[in-house]
Structures are given as structure tokens and as C-alpha cells.
């Protein structure tokens, strides 16, 4: 259990932490969530949502089992998510340009971006695998 003294010190320190103060820092922090947009669910895009429903119905093969239909919808959702993830990876390569002449800093930045993108890809592949495994049960 945390002591009262430590709890008060933590509160005091937290009250001093106000986030970025400079205009540049505020601008950078404002853009943190907009680097690649992969954290937002793919079904938030209305055009993609329609495609997900269509592909999910095709994968379910006209079945009437609700659980199977939902699992096939999840597989379709993962397919479109993987397309979006791979497009984001492609964008990183395009921004990097000529890799042979890129600076070490640019390569490090691209590598970190690829690492972040890979996390979303692994998650989507795992989700798809789980849905396919459950549909066979």
C-alpha cells in the first residue's frame, strides 16, 4: 500500500506536469495519434464497412448460423485491416525514397515506423487466425 506521504508527493508532481508548453511541442503532441491511423477500427470507414459486410457474407456462404457469419465478418474485417496496414508500410517506403542515399536518421525513423506497423499486422493476423479456428469448431 502506498503511504500518505508518497501519495501526496505523487499528486504534487502530477499537478506540475501540464504537458507541452512550447508551440512546437503542442503541435507535435497534437499529431501523435495521426501518424498512420491504424489504431482506428477499419469499419469506421463507411465504404470499407460495406465491403466488409459483402465479403463476410460471401465467406459465410449464405449460412444462417449467426456465430459463423460473425466469424466470417471478422475474417473479412482482418483482410481489409491488413490491406490498410500494408498500404501504411508502403507509404513509409515511399517517404524514405532512395534507400541507398538515405541518412542514418531517416533509416532509423523508417525502422521504428515499420516496427510500430508490424505490431498492428501481427494483431490482425492473430485475430483472423482465431476467427478461422473458431469457425471450424
Helix/strand order, N-terminal first = HHHHH
Strand segment count: 0
Report mean pLDDT, rounded to a whole number.
Answer: 85
Q: Please mark out the parts with pLDDT under 50 across 5 or more consecutive residues, or reply none.
A: none
What is the approximate shape?
extended
Give the secondary structure arrangement, pairings included.
Blueprint (H helix, E strand, L loop, with lengths): L3 H13 L6 H8 L15 H15 L5 H31 L7 H32 L2
What would your notes on this structure say?
With 137 residues, this protein is an all-alpha fold. The chain has a domain at 60-135: Helix Hairpins. The protein has five helices and no strands. It has helices at residues 4-16, 23-30, 46-60, 66-96, 104-135. The protein is extended, with a radius of gyration of 22 Å. The chain starts with a helix and ends with a helix. The mean pLDDT is 85.
Task: Fill in the keyword field for this structure.
single chain; 137 residues; mainly alpha; Helix Hairpins; 5 helices; 72% helix; 0% strand; extended
Amino acid at each position: 500500500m502506498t503511504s500518505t506521504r508518497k501519495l501526496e508527493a505523487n499528486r504534487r508532481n502530477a499537478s506540475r506536469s501540464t504537458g507541452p508548453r512550447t508551440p512546437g511541442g503542442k503541435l507535435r503532441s497534437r499529431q501523435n495519434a495521426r501518424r498512420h491511423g491504424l489504431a482506428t477500427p477499419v469499419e469506421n470507414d463507411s465504404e470499407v464497412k460495406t465491403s466488409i459486410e459483402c465479403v463476410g457474407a460471401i465467406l459465410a456462404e449464405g449460412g444462417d448460423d449467426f456465430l459463423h457469419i460473425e466469424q466470417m465478418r471478422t475474417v473479412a474485417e482482418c483482410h481489409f485491416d491488413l490491406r490498410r496496414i500494408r498500404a501504411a508500410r508502403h507509404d513509409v517506403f515511399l517517404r524514405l525514397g532512395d534507400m541507398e542515399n538515405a541518412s542514418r536518421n531517416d533509416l532509423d525513423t523508417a525502422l521504428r515506423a515499420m516496427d510500430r506497423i508490424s505490431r498492428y499486422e501481427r494483431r490482425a493476423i492473430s485475430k483472423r487466425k482465431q476467427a478461422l479456428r473458431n469457425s471450424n469448431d
